[in-house]
Structure formats: structure tokens, C-alpha cells
Task: structure prediction
Amino acid sequence: MITVLHDQRETRHADSVVEGDALWLDAPAIDAATGWAWKPEGLCRGDICVPVPPVAKRELVRDGQLNVTAMWRRSGQPVVHDSARRTWVLGSGAAQRVSALATLQAPDFELPDLSGRTHRLSQYRGRKVFLATWASW
Amino acid sequence: MWQSLAEELKDHPFTVLAVALDHADAARPWIEAAKATYPCLIDRDHHVADLYNLVNVPQAVWIDEQGRIVRPPETAGSTDGFRVMDRKTGAMPEAANSERVRVKALYIDAVRDWVRNGAASVNALTEMQAGARLRAPDETIAEAHARFRLGQHLLREGKTEEAQAQMAQAAQLHPDSWAMWRQAYAKNERGLASGPEFWARVDALGDRPYYPQADIAPVQR
Result:
């Protein structure tokens, strides 16, 4: 069983294959783990599709699974895992963060309060928000 | 920390959204003591720091009614005054203390003025100004956040040693992030990562600020 962490998602996958530094996932697993849909035209989310490069198809696609490690890194996004290769983080790349911030639309997020109730930033649309960080450390 | 501001502005379409870059059990006593009426969220994986490229606390972002960033992340009214305090007694020179009070009041006044006057506030930035002040993360910072996320997950699984190694690597990849370093670092008896290693790291800043000063224009009270 493999655990995949991506942004705030945490999913478990029984049918994944791990070979060295490569994590292979099928389309439903990729969708569940990352929100990206694996279609003939590539990995798609919203209006964006990142094509799976034809020259690299042998390296990237096999038996209905995609080498997400290679695919992620090709698009400049970090992939890290624990020493047992049971927990994988499919990170978000700097380019993605930069282009999101450059729109000046405040990136949305969902976090719990102490009682476990979740709050989304976007639920405060229509109000001014003073988003302030702090910590006990 | 922001309760009096929230109370004073409660009749405006405005909210403070406090995000603790911290674990719930560590943040809980502080939140309960503050008796805050605004939402206090727990961000154990520092996800908001990843999204907004934050490096320390307190940093704040001003977001308008349309969800647009009016002021990108910046120091929320803190100063470097603590660097000249007596490290045994915690005593602060008078000049540093009055500067701390002045900067905090200047910042709070600016928030209040923005809530009341919106885009007409002298501290509400235009899109050009806000865009120019954004600090862009690079690929090393992106990897640091991925490793920090992994480290926090391993910590929850009880794999402490491996977790610490991942978080130490994250802090090394992103040396500007005090949030990663202090969260990862062993805490002293006061619950603060403020042992000798902290002070060594602060001293190593030399002329560089721990809290870069936000460029806030004074407003009439």
C-alpha cells in the first residue's frame, strides 16, 4: 500500500507499482491522488492539458500505468519519498506557484480550526480578509 | 493578537483569518487564551506557506472582497528589536521597545484604514505595485516544501528520526524559511525554538533583517 501526498490530498493506493525511483499509477489513482485526469491528450485539469511526450512514451507509459515520478519531474515539479518508498509527495512546482501568485488572485485553501470545522478562504469572498500567520514556536 | 482589531471592525465586511503554522496541540493554549472571535486555523503542514511563499511569522496578506491580493505577504507589524535584548534577562533597551510599539501601531492603523477606505487607502497597493512586491519561489523552495510535507507526515506516523532528517533537509534547501527551521527544531522549556542555535542563526544574519520591514505609510488616526 502506497500513500501519496499532493497539496492537501492524502490518498492510499493498493495497485501502484514502485520500481526504484519510479511510481506507477493508473488513471483512477492519478485522479484520486492529484485531481489530474489522465486522458489521451495528456494530464488534464480544468482547461490545462500537459501532453505525455510521444518520444518518452516507453519510459512513461506501461500496462495502463503512468510513471508519475518521471512525468512530474519533466514538468519541473518535485517528487520525494521516504526511505521505504511507501510515502510519496508529488509536490507543486515553483512555476505553478509563481503563475498562481502573479494573477494576484489569493490562492484558495481549506484548513480546520481547533474544533475540526473546516474553513475555506474563498468562503469569505465579499469580505476583506486579513490573513495573518502565527505560531507557538 | 488581533482580537481588539477584529472587535473594533466587527461591523465592517471584514475578517481576520489567523493561520497557525503549527501543530494543533501546540497552538491550542494560545488560541484559548486569546479568546479570539475570528477563525483560528491550524496548518500543521505549512500549506499556506507553500502557496503564498511565506518564510516567517507573523506575516500577513491583505485580500479584498474579490479575493484579490492587495498587499502581498509581509511582516505584520513586528520589528528586529528582540535582537538587541539581553539574552539572559529578556530585557529590551528602551529605544528598541518604543520602536516595537510604534511599528505595531503603525501597522494596525494601516489595516484599520484599509478596512474602512478600501482601495482609497494609502496602503492599498495597485496591481502593478502588488505584483512588483511578490516574492517568487524557485524550484529549490518547491522541493523544500515537498520534503517538509513528507517530514510532517512521517512525524505523525511515529518515524521521528526519518521525519527530522527530511525537515532538516527542507530547512537546508530553504534557508530563508524560519518557519521550517523553527518548526523542525527542538523546542526549549518555554515552547520556543529559541535556544543557542536560534541565536546563532539570528546572529548569522548580520545586517540582514529577521523581520524585513513592511513599507507602510502612516495614516491619520
Q: What stands out?
A: The CA atoms of residues 25 and 65 of chain A lie 5 Å apart. Chain A touches chain B through 51 residues (CB under 8 Å).
